[in-house]
Amino acid sequence: MSHSDLVSLLLALGLLVGIARALGELASALRQPAVLGEILAGVLLGPTILGSLWPEATAGLFPETGPVAFGLQGMTQVAVVLFLLVAGLEVDLSRIKRQGRMATVVSAAGMFFPFALGFAGVYAAPALLGKPPETGTFLYALFLATALSISALPVIAKILMDLHLFRTDLGMIILAAAIVNDFIGWLLFALVLGLIPGRHLDEGSFDIRTTVTATLVFALGMLTVGRTLLDQVLVRVQAQAAWPAGVLALCVSLALLCGAFAEWIGVHAIFGAFLVGVALGDSRHLQERTRLILHHFVAALFAPLFFASIGLRVNFVEAFDPVLCLVVLAIACLGKVLGCGGSALLAGMPSRQAWALGFGMNARGAMEIILGLLAREAGLIDDRMLVALVVMALVTSMLSGPLMERMLARRQPARFARFLRDRGFFVLGSDLDQTQAIAAVAGGLSTALGSPPEVLLESIHRRQRLTGDELAPGVRLAHGRLPGIAAPLIGVALCREGFKGAGATEPVRAVVVVITPLEKEDEQLEVLADLARTFLAPRLRRALLACATPLEMRALLRSAQGESES
Amino acid sequence: MSRPAGQMLALVALSPTAESVAREASRLSRSLGMRIRFLHVGEKTPASQSRLESMLTEALGGEPGEVVFRSGRIEEVVAEEARDCELVVLGALEQEGPLAPLIRSVARRVARTAPCSTLLLPSPRPSPEPFRRIVVALDPETPSHEMLRSVLDLARVEDVEVLHVVQEFELPALNLALEEGADLEQTEDERRVSVLVARHRLANLLESCDPGEIPARVESLAGREGLEAIQFSHENSADLLVVPAPQREQSSLLERLFPHGTDLTLQTLPCALLAWRPGRTP
């Protein structure tokens, strides 16, 4: 690579990563999938926009041949290998059994229906579904069926988090089903790539029978002996090598090595990286912070690079076929929503929840796009189909959250602001300690309740002995439950300088006293969750701690609530 | 404890730790008001009988009482002999071998197949004392009132310093949300809120079982089910960890390859472990 080639390559990489990351952040801020912004960066810099306005600039920055193109392509291949490594980290197949029959049914139907529709669709109308003449019908049908049946776990996780559905039964069923869908989908896709004619014709490559045998042995070996060995290696590396460099290097090098091995035996490199991810993810020694670093490493650098590179390779205007886009979108949604939603309904889930589950599972996102690009590179599909898959992935990702929310039509959860009592609001001096502050608030609330403060305090102390009182930095929770009260009662004691004697590392500036009805557990937990979310948000917490009156606090809470809901 | 006429079966081998296992079992049987029977799985010869009886006499400081000799596969013999028992006590390795998911050790097989609760003693103390720091890890999906009540009874008998009531839970794929634009703070907050809600749900459960004056604390542990309880027990210097007993039926290859919950806990015992089974139980 010459001096000027190196300059060009670094310039191209810098622009791609920088602009893609910036647009990804912008998309996230607008509550859209980050991948939308990242692809848009490629569309802006590639043949679709910059290339049509100033072709020399695109050709100069991102040449289609030569060392720079080779370097860029190599980087995107590494990106996809690492993407599959982190996807594999979250695969925990035992979860499907733990979530029970419903998750198994949803997962199976969520694979089968879109798969069957896609497969049959290609045989019924190959031209309508964009089959290139040179691609075999079986292989194309297998690819499209797999592409339609896969789900995007990252999008689903983000949607569930935004809708506060993560730890609900519905959320857990969706996650378990999507994990299995992803696992089977990627294995199937690796098989499809392995079946592409010509892949086994290179000098030194294996015939298809050897490839299939080697693949099976490799997969079984990785999930049994390989997993145990990895576990042992991981514990030694984490104990003896510098952190996080040692463990990161181990994970990345294993993904690349196994990717190379998978490619050598005739399946795609993603297969090896994915299996390494599954094996590592299951290790009892893989620390949570190591996982987080790996996710950050890939999400911040490699994902933008990969998704932006799609826009560089395809002219989205020329390759946009509205009919094909609509057909692919319709089949994808029909198969997934009907398959998952319908099966959940038949398995006994209430109808609104069942359809919400169907819409949740319908999100395709980044996974679909990776799959599309790899298929295009393998010559299996053309640009029209790639664009149709990208459109489908983006539309389903954008629609999933709003449709789920609309379908669930949940009642408003119990909010902290609603139950805040004027008589329980105090701004106190630093001469009082936390116990005195709790007593003051309990006294105020007991007037509203009409029972002696000792009853409240006894209930609070009983709970504190069991659970402790940590709520957020500088904020303590004093919680009790009483029988026979109609609604929760909340009071707050604030102290600008911090209560006397409390907080070893950070002064305690607020004590929130929450009394809930003994008989209403749902309401109790909703109020506590809302309190935690409220006080964990640093800006809102600072503003709340500076309030002088209950009215001011209520107004602040209502406006924050309005913002989060909009 | 709640059933004074209950029976305990203590499994003893002719091994270096057998004496300690016998002492621990004997102490517990007195505390719980249970009748103890010793079982040795192996051929009954005059030599083995004499060795075992003298070992037990020395360990217990007197006549050992009923000692049964049986031959066969240990877990099958225990399943048969423990039909009328409330508790099986036996020694166990602290750490399973590398092929643990595929080839389980005797103690783990017994814990899986015994008809009642099983107490595994990885490093029995030479002079046993009551369990003073107990951790009970309730089932993550369906925490059992019966199990909690039973452990509260045990905590009263043992006069515990502290009883930690914990529940593990996972947040699968939460980290993947980072790829979709979620920031680290957002995922951390989700974790903290989930922990707080789970902790109070658990506290409600404990209050409904009336812990009375037992020094109990609840904790919800976000992380890998089966591993968090081990870590927590280590960090809190627990001397007894109580977990729900693993399922009796033969687990599938998938479950063996991807073990979770109690199966994972059983692979590394942080201290004595009581695999609790509903029905006839201490």
Descriptive notes:
The complex is a heterodimer of chains A (566) and B (282). With 566 residues, chain A is mainly alpha-helical. Chain A has 23 helices and 5 strands. In chain A, strands 1-4-5-3-2 form a 5-stranded mixed β-sheet, sandwiched between helices. The longest helix of chain A is centred in the middle third of the chain and has 33 residues, at 208-240. With 282 residues, chain B is α/β, with parallel strands linked by helices. Chain B folds into 2 domains: 1-128, HUPs (Rossmann fold), CATH 3.40.50; 130-268, HUPs (Rossmann fold), CATH 3.40.50. Helices cover 37% and strands 21% of the residues of chain B. In chain B, strands 3-2-1-4-5-10-9-6-7-8 form a 10-stranded mixed β-sheet, with helices on both faces. In chain B, helix 5 links the parallel strand 6 and strand 7 (162-169). The longest helix of chain B is centred in the C-terminal third of the chain and has 25 residues, at 184-208. The chains are: A mainly alpha (566), B alpha/beta (282). At the A-B interface, helix 1, helix 5, helix 6, helix 9 and helix 10 of A face helix 6, strand 8 and helix 8 of B.
